[in-house]
Amino acid sequence: MSHSAFFYGTLLHPSILRRVIGHEGTQLEICPAILLEHTRHKIRNADYPAVLPYSTSRALFQAAGKPELPPAERTVRGTFVRGLNDRDIALLDLFEGDEYTRENVAVHPLGPPTPLSSAPAPSGATPGSTAEAPAVDAPAATDAYVVPRTASELPPLEALPPALAAETYIYAGPLGGLSPELWTYEDFVRDSAWKWVGSGARDEDYYVEVDRRRELAGKTLRTAIVDVLGNGEEATKDVAAAGAETTVVAEVRS
After folding, report:
1. For 112, which DSSP code?
2. How confident is the model at residue 3 (pLDDT cuts 50, 70, 90)?
3. 209 pLDDT tier (thresholds 50, 70, 90)
């Protein structure tokens, strides 16, 4: 089954998307898009953001003494990606974890779809480097230019193209962990992308479970209790409790 998704946070970076799904994404097409009536927030002590319906996030702004947001600011810019398969989605679900739920939304494209594999090589400085943080690897730097750091000017909302169906990850954690301050991709690329792409991300905790599941290649583990008494009978809990040894065997099966 083919899936379309809307990405708005770390997965905006094509290197991170490729890292999670485990392939180059040659079948994927990508374009800028916008999600209306939602806001994207910083999560305290995290590099990645949270997106919420404005009907929910309004409480954050009210608690901070901020006025009602105009419609143009109740929007989230991101990318619309189509051509994802079931396995890609399963790995993305693992990456997002239980802080998020995958939900159906309608997003408006802001440009024509482009093959993900057609990213042009950048010229000039490598993005993502600061005085304190090293520059990312060259391939990751190229990917940083697939999605510009600074979004283009937003057209009037009434002039947006027709919406497209997509799946996205809506924050399901406690509001107390969020800031009313809005998260931007520009800040992420400048300050934090170096921790998520290239050699510096090899042991990043967020990838560990995704990598483990991918290595299983769709296989599952079956465990069995094996008789070691030599009498052909399966060792029971009562026998084990009496001091007999049992062995747990894990067998990988397709």
Report:
1. -
2. very high
3. low
What mean pLDDT comes out for the span 9-25?
Answer: 91
Instruction: Provide the mean pLDDT of the chain.
Output: 77
Helices (H), 64-204: 86-96, 138-143, 185-191
Written as six digits, the tokens of 231 are 């009498």
> Within 13 Å and on the Cβ side, how many CA atoms surround 21?
20
Q: What is the CA radius of gyration of the chain?
A: 23
* CA distance to 77, 223, 242, 243, per residue, from 248 (Å): 50, 7, 17, 15
Nearest 5 degrees, angle CA 104-CA 105-CA 107? 145
The vertex-228 CA angle with 222 and 233, nearest 5°, equals 85
Tokens read off for 215: 């290595």
Closest CA to 143 of 185, 89, 84, 202: 185
Q: 35, 51 in Cβ contact below 8 A? A: yes
Cα separation, 239 vs 93, whole angstroms:
42
Q: Cβ(29)–Cβ(112) under 8 Å?
A: no
Query: Hey, CA dihedral for 224, 228, 230, 235, is it positive or negative?
Result: negative
Residue 214: band (very low, low, confident or very high) from pLDDT cuts 50, 70, 90: low
Q: How far apart are CA 16 and CA 98, in angstroms?
A: 19
Q: Looking up tokens 């600011």, which residue turns up?
A: 73
